[in-house]
Amino acid sequence: VQLVESGGGLVQPGGSLRLSCAASGFTFSRYNMNWYRQAPGKEREFVARMYSAGGSVTYADSVKGRFTISRDNAKNTVYLQMNSLKPEDTAVYYCNAHKYAQDYWGQGTQVTVSS
After folding, report:
1. Which backbone phi and psi does 35 adopt, to 5 degrees?
2. How far apart are CA 99 and CA 80, in angstroms?
3. pLDDT class for 55, splitting at 50, 70, 90?
4. What percent of the chain has pLDDT over 90?
5. Which residues pair with 3 in a beta bridge?
6. Fewer CB within 10 Å: N-end or C-end of the chain?
7. Distance, CA of 10 to CA of 82 (rounded, Å)
């Protein structure tokens, strides 16, 4: 099982980034896909989820209206489009695949929002 994030980097406040997470080794379409983040000195926190069935989504209040999660089951990839970025969005962003007791994590990608 592998989850490989990409797309992180340094961006100015108000800017945008698109994160990708390429999955392999499991039946991607059957898993709920999540993004989490962890800022320095803070606990890991939930950012966004896209359910396997029906494609419904949910977001943390802190990112609603600015971030959009999507998935391409044909490419086994989940995305996180991040707009109107703020310095407080600075964190390592992790991709997560979850189904019942099965839980897989990527290695994370750094997002830094700074002028």
Report:
1. -120, 135
2. 20
3. confident
4. 97
5. 23
6. C
7. 13
3-class SS string, the chain: CEEEEECCEEECCCCCEEEEEEEECCCHHHCEEEEEEECCCCCCEEEEEECCCCCCEEECCCCCCCEEEEEECCCCEEEEEECCCCHHHCEEEEEEEEECCEEEECCCEEEEECC
DSSP-derived letter for residue 88 is G
Spatial CA neighbour of 94 closest among 52, 43, 51: 43
> Contact 33/95 with Cβ under 8 angstroms?
yes
Q: Is the confidence at residue 61, as pLDDT, over 80?
A: yes
Whether residue 60 has pLDDT greater than 90? yes
Burial of residue 5 (number of CB atoms within 10 Å: 0-12, 13-18, 19+): buried
Structure tokens at 69: 């999660």
Amino acid letter, 26: F
Do residues 114 and 12 lie in contact, with contact meaning Cβ atoms separated by under 8 Å?
Answer: yes
Tokens of 105: 């994590």
